[in-house]
Structures are given as C-alpha cells and as structure tokens.
C-alpha cells in the first residue's frame, strides 16, 4: 500500500504515468528508486521510495529522513472498513497527508491503492501450507445502517515459518458449507494444492468443505474455544474446578491418555454437567489431532 501510494505521488509530481510517452522531453523524469527501512507498529518494513531526475520530488507519506511511521495500520484498516468508497478513502488519505496535498494527488494515490488491494486479494499463493487458521472477527460495518458483521480471516504459516494472511471475506453470520466451499475453492484456484492442518473454531459446514477441497487435510478445533464453550454450561463457582479437571485432557501425552483423563472427567462431572461431556464428545475427532505432535508444535496449532 505504501509503495502504491508513493508511486501515485511521483506520478502526480512529474505529470505522467510510468512508461507514458508523454513524459519524453518534459524536463523531469522518474529516476528509479531507493530502498529505505522504516519502523512501523508491526516492526521494521523495507519500502522502495521513487526518485526523480531533477531531485525536486518530496514524498509525503514517507518523508525524506523519516524513520518511523505511525498509524499506517490504521490507514490500511480504514481503507477496508470504510467500504472502499472513493470519497471516504480520499478523505482519510487527506487526513493522513495533511492539507498541502492537492485533491488530484489524493485521487491518483487512491487509484493506485485500489489497484494494489485488488492485486493483493487475487495474488498467487504457495502450493503447500503446513497450517492454516480460519477465524472470525466482528466489526461494525455501515451498509445502510451500522451493524456487527463477521469478517473471516485465513492466516497461514508458510513452510519457512512465517505468517501470511491469505484472504479476508465479509460474512453475514449465516454461513454454511456452501460459503466455505466458495472460500476454500478460491484459495485452491490461487495455487494452494494442499493444507496439512486447518485450525478453526466450530464454524458450521467448514470441516465438510475442507474434506471436499483438500481430502487429506486434518481439521483441528480450537482448544481455547472448546474450554470457553464448556464454561457456558457450568455455574460460575465451578469454572476453576472444571478448568483444572479438563487440563489433564488437553495436556495428555497421547490420545489414549487423553481419552482416559476425559473418562475420569465425565465420571466426576457428567451427572452435574452432561452438556459439557456431550460438547467434548461431539468435538473429539477434531480435538485430538494436535496430541500427535511435540509440545512446541502443539502450542502453535491448539488455538486460533
């Protein structure tokens, strides 16, 4: 997004698009770019800042000698959350840039940013991901009126051990297998041939969709959500006792040991809270896969 915005700035400064014949003999031309590392809220990020031959280009979003950016993630979130209307994005970028930037510059930058976001949403993905996490966050969205809507996020761990956001989709809360089939097929069409493990929290229809798109993928349910859901069926004064009784189940050395600990839990609490026992029994097939791994890997894949 930053590089797209900078590209928009220099286009406005020299007065023509990249590779446009209109720039010949104009008196000032693009002159490559230089790499610059700036500190952001998510750590150091390297950006390429364009230059002009005359040396008169003064970038605004990443100023000369500026080493720290603030509010960059706020800007990107706002671009998405405000519904991507041209006027709203222009208004927000105007706020970030300050009054000295012309409306034409904002318009040029906005067009570049929109192109960059569309490109990001459709970019090719890796062939294989060891782990993909799918979860929802609820945000307020204005669509005639302001209402809470789930935004579904797919985040992967790459084979090199890095995090990568694969995609973001808006939902309306009534998503089922058909919706998830559409989402996963989109990921597959962008190049994802296989996912070794998919971690999610009881999203309706998702395991069935996974079985259709990637038949060999292991579906792992989020243990933290499983515990939270257990507390819903229990009186508050028993939460600590139930948490203590369930801990040996999800920290067991093997699946067999987990089964033994769960039977002990069911014997102790089954009569008082049969709904909790039923909850774990229904989720058992998606709960146990992570128990086959080392403790270090378990910590990564036990929760969304």
Descriptive overview:
By secondary structure, this protein is an alpha/beta fold. It has three domains: 2-121, no CATH class; 128-221; 223-301. Helix content is 44%, strand content 23%. The protein has eleven helices and seven strands. The chain has helices spanning 2-14, 72-81, 86-97, 103-121, 177-189, 206-213, 223-232, 239-250, 255-269, 274-287, 295-301; strands spanning 30-40, 43-52, 128-143, 145-157, 163-170, 194-200, 218-221. It has a five-stranded mixed beta sheet. α8 (239-250) packs antiparallel against α9 (255-269). The longest helix is centred in the middle third of the chain and has 19 residues, at 103-121. It is elongated, with a radius of gyration of 25 Å. It starts with a helix and ends with a helix.
Secondary-structure map with pairings?
Layout: H1 2-14, E1 30-40, E2 43-52, H2 72-81, H3 86-97, H4 103-121, E3 128-143, E4 145-157, E5 163-170, H5 177-189, E6 194-200, H6 206-213, E7 218-221, H7 223-232, H8 239-250, H9 255-269, H10 274-287, H11 295-301
Parallel strand pairs: 3-6, 6-7
Antiparallel strand pairs: 1-2, 3-4, 4-5
Helix pairs in contact: 1-4, 3-4, 5-6, 7-8, 7-10, 8-9
Notable traits:
elongated, 5-stranded mixed beta sheet, 7 strands, 11 helices, alpha/beta, 304 residues, 23% strand, two-stranded antiparallel sheet
Short description:
The chain has 304 residues and is α/β, with parallel strands linked by helices. The chain has 11 helices and 7 strands. The chain has helices at 2-14, 72-81, 86-97, 103-121, 177-189, 206-213, 223-232, 239-250, 255-269, 274-287, 295-301; strands spanning 30-40, 43-52, 128-143, 145-157, 163-170, 194-200, 218-221.
């Amino acid at each position: 997004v930053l590089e797209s915005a900078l590209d928009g700035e220099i286009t406005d400064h020299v007065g023509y698009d990249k590779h446009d014949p209109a720039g010949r003999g104009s008196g000032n031309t693009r002159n490559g770019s230089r790499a610059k590392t700036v500190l952001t809220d998510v750590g150091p990020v390297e950006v390429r800042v364009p230059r002009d031959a005359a040396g008169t280009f003064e970038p605004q979003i990443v100023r000369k000698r500026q080493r720290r950016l603030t509010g960059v993630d706020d800007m990107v979130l706002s671009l998405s959350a405000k519904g991507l209307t041209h006027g709203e994005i222009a208004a927000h970028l105007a706020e970030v840039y300050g009054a000295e930037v012309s409306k034409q510059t904002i318009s040029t930058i906005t067009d570049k940013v929109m192109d960059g976001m569309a490109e990001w949403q459709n970019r090719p993905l890796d062939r294989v991901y060891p782990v993909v996490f799918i979860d929802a966050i609820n945000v307020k969205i204005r669509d005639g009126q302001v209402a809470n809507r789930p935004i579904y996020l797919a985040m992967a761990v790459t084979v090199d051990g890095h995090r990568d956001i694969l995609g973001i989709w808006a939902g309306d809360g009534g998503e089922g297998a058909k919706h998830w089939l559409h989402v996963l097929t989109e990921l597959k069409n962008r190049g994802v041939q296989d996912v070794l493990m998919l971690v999610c929290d009881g999203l309706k229809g998702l395991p069935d969709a996974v079985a259709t798109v990637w038949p060999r993928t292991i579906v792992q349910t989020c243990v933290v959500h499983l515990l939270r859901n257990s507390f819903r069926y229990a009186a508050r004064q028993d939460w600590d006792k139930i948490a203590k009784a369930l801990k040996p189940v999800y920290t067991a050395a093997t699946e067999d040991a987990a089964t033994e600990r769960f039977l002990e839990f069911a014997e102790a609490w089954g009569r008082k809270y049969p709904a909790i026992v039923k909850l774990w029994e229904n989720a058992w097939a998606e709960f146990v896969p992570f128990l086959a791994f080392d403790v270090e890997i378990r910590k990564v894949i036990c929760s969304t």
